[in-house]
């Protein structure tokens, strides 16, 4: 298993994994914000993945995006692969609302991260459990 970049370890909660990717929750309660990290060492860009892994990442990303929009009832799904600070290949999935504090601008740098309360984190985990994520294994510590 590829080691997570230290910034991802600091900023996120590991929720579990799909066939290719680990699923993380960003520690920012301002938005439902999840990150897929392909489990491949030394990859910084999607094009560096094999064709099979690229296809699998697209399937996981699309499935996750649809799932998140259903359970969080969002207005828009933002998906981004920036990598300017964290070079490890990863895809952000942020559920957006017309009423969110950064709308319509991107979420980066708009507000300081808002820590999850234990109750709010548990609510997110409960929402994830409402629908089964096909091919997803939850971390045992959640």
Detailed description of the structure:
- This protein has three helices and six strands.
- The model has no long low-confidence stretch (mean pLDDT 91).
- 29% of the residues lie in helices and 22% in strands.
- The chain has a single domain (6-138), classed as HIT-like (HIT family, subunit A), CATH 3.30.428.10.
- The two termini are 19 Å apart.
- The protein is of the alpha+beta class and 142 residues long.
- It has a six-stranded antiparallel sheet.
Summarize the structure.
It is built from three helices and six strands; from the N terminus they run αβββαββαβ.
What is the count of structural domains? 1
Structural class: alpha+beta
Q: How many angstroms does the end-to-end distance come to?
A: 19 Å
Bin the helical content: 25-40%
Write the element-wise H/E pattern from the N-terminal end onward. Answer: HEEEHEEHE
Shape: globular
Task: List unreliable stretches of 5+ residues.
Answer: none
Assembly type of the chains comes to single chain
Number of helices: 3
Query: Any idea of the CATH topology?
Result: HIT family, subunit A
Strand order of the largest sheet: 4-5-3-2-1-6
* CATH architecture identity: 2-Layer Sandwich
Kindly report the average pLDDT value.
91
Number of DSSP strand runs: 6
How much strand content do the residues show?
A: 15-25%
Q: What's the gyration radius in Å?
A: 14 Å
